[in-house]
Protein: Transposase Tc1-like domain-containing protein
Organism: Mucor plumbeus
Amino acid sequence: MYPTVGIANLSKYRRKFLEGAQASISGRSNGLRDVQEYLGSTNISMSLSAAEKLHNGMGFKAKRKNKTNFVSAANKKLRLAWAHKHRQLTVSDWRKWVFSGKTRVNMGGSDSESFYWSDVPGTNRPHQVRPQVQGSGDRVMFWGCISGDGPGYSTAIIDGTIDSNKYIMEILKTSLMQTLEYQNGFFVDKILDWPPQNSDLNPIEHFRGDLKRHLDAYPNRPATK
């Protein structure tokens, strides 16, 4: 059993740890030990197991955190300023831009975790495992672009490792210019400024994410030959 906690203390506890919880500098949220220390500061002595029972009694359950890209406080301000700067652009204005980028596609499927349902622990049935190639497996690097008229048709597939010089000389100065000619002569002398850590602001990031999901939907793995 754990000691009786007054309504006032519960209200403070809820505000501090559950409703308005803030991440610490290390990126960790407040856990049971933090709760235990807070209650101790209010002259309430409680074990970790009792703190867990208190959580459960209040209807709170542990949840896995969703992963998201880290954005520093300084870059958050830059991103907001960028959004304010371009908020007057119309749909027609945005259709004038070509968005380009590169991405890696694994031949063996996504790097993310896979899950399955099972009521028998300790088994390795075919639907419970994901085969993988020794080492890292085969992968290819794609470069592509999209515009208001659709995807570009000069997608580049480059062998080997891509460094900055190869990216500029073999992709941007060839594939991009071919695509611009197809897109009624758009020029590259005007480049849209982007804030730091801008992946979710660039529409091609979502486009290629959709591409990978479609590739993962195929029943058979792609072959190199």
Observations:
- Residues 7-57 form one domain.
